[in-house]
Each structure stands twice: as C-alpha cells, then as structure tokens.
Specification:
The protein is an alpha/beta fold. It has a single domain, classed as Aldolase class I (TIM Barrel). Helix content is 39%, strand content 16%. The chain has nine helices and eight strands. An eight-stranded parallel β-barrel has the order 1-2-3-4-5-6-7-8, surrounded by five helices. Helix 1 runs parallel beside helix 2.
Length: 214
C-alpha cells in the first residue's frame, strides 16, 4: 500500500465529535484518517471504529486505528498506528491481515532504527513542535532534528512529520527528506486546509510517493 502524504488524526471532546470531524475530513478530501481516541473503553472504541469504517469506506478514505490492532483487524481498517508505549509492531503483525499496514511513532534516530528493524510501513517522527494534543511529548525536533534523522537513516520507509504542523511548514518540512505529514489541530480548526495541505504536498492518488528529493 502506498502511504498517503497527508494523515488527519482525529480530534474531538467526545466520540460524537470524533465521528463528525472524521466525516468533515473525508468530505474535504482527506486520503487517510487515523482514529485516535483516548481514555474510553476498548468496547466503546470498537463501536466508534465500526461507524468510522462506514464513513471512510463511503468516501474511499483509508482508515488507520490508533493503538488497537485487534480493533483494526475486526473492522478491516487499512492499518494500525502504534505509539511508543503501545504493542510491539512484530506482535501486531502476527494478528493483522497481510494487507494491513503498521505505523509507529519515534522521537530519536535509535527509535526509528528499531521500528525499521520491526518492518513498520511508515514512521511518524514527532514532535515537530510542541502541541497540546499529546501528553508526554518527546524532545521537540524541528527542521534541524528532521534533517539529522532522515540523513542518518537513509531509508526507503516513509517518514511522516507530526506535531503542531501548519500549512506554512510544509515546504520546509519536505525539504528535510520527510515524505509526508500528520495533522490534527490545524485541520480540525478548519477542514478547508486539507485542500491547501494536499496542494502543498502535491498529494494525489496518482502521485505514488516514489520520488526522490533532489
């Protein structure tokens, strides 16, 4: 599976808000949505994931479930995203369908190398800058951190920038060797920015991310 260059990470104060925001993101042209809900039971997340799968299927938007690989399998999502304290990708892989993808979060070069050794399909390198969306943030990486890590890694595995990213950051982030971005706050505040992000990323289904940075 080709990894889209723009990931929308769901936000909301309630499950209903997450659903509404995912619907808006799909309507606005999001290619990939990550359902990320914390602090509610797995049973409730499954219920929401079933509804989200219906929405994303209607729009032919790819769906990634944050943390819960068993739910990702049950609802036949396109994959799962595992944070640093979540399940090991190797273990998740054994449970998932062969076509499902696994993404992982990293903050350091060593964490990236570990994820690559576990055959993840993409790495979310975070945070680009500090953000209110997440607790226990690692070291803020910024452009210099992205350059240092991508140059040292020299990997085919897509690196997705994440953490407080706005449309103004896209051009300079792409110049670091990072191949895409994951956005939560900026999109939730204004779903029209999806079109802007897509234009800046030159993202389209036909542009199959097999490009090199000159």
């Amino acid at each position: 599976m080709i990894i889209p260059k723009l990931h929308y990470i769901s936000q909301g104060c309630s499950p209903k808000e997450h659903l509404e925001n995912i619907q808006k993101a799909c309507t606005s042209g999001a290619e990939l949505v990550q359902l990320r809900i914390k602090d509610i039971s797995e049973k409730k997340i499954l219920k929401i994931a079933i509804q989200v799968r219906e929405i994303t299927a209607h729009f032919q938007t790819r769906l990634i479930i944050n943390d819960y690989f068993k739910i990702a399998k049950e609802v036949k999502a396109d994959g799962v995203h595992l944070g640093k304290t979540d399940s090991c990708p190797t273990m998740a892989r054994k449970h998932l369908y062969t076509w499902q993808i696994i993404g992982g979060t990293a903050n350091t070069l060593q964490e990236c190398e570990t994820l690559i050794s576990k055959d993840v399909d993409y790495i979310s390198l975070a945070p680009f800058r500090s953000t209110a969306t997440k607790d226990n943030l690692g070291t803020v990486l910024g452009l210099n951190g992205y350059v240092a890590i991508t140059e040292a890694l020299n990997t085919e595995t897509p690196i997705i920038g994440c953490g407080g990213i706005s449309t103004e950051d896209v051009k300079s982030i792409l110049e670091t060797g990072v191949s895409g971005i994951a956005v939560s706050g900026a999109i939730t505040r204004n779903f029209n920015t999806i079109r802007t992000f897509n234009l800046l990323l030159n993202a389209s289904i036909t542009d199959e991310q097999h490009y090199t940075f000159g």
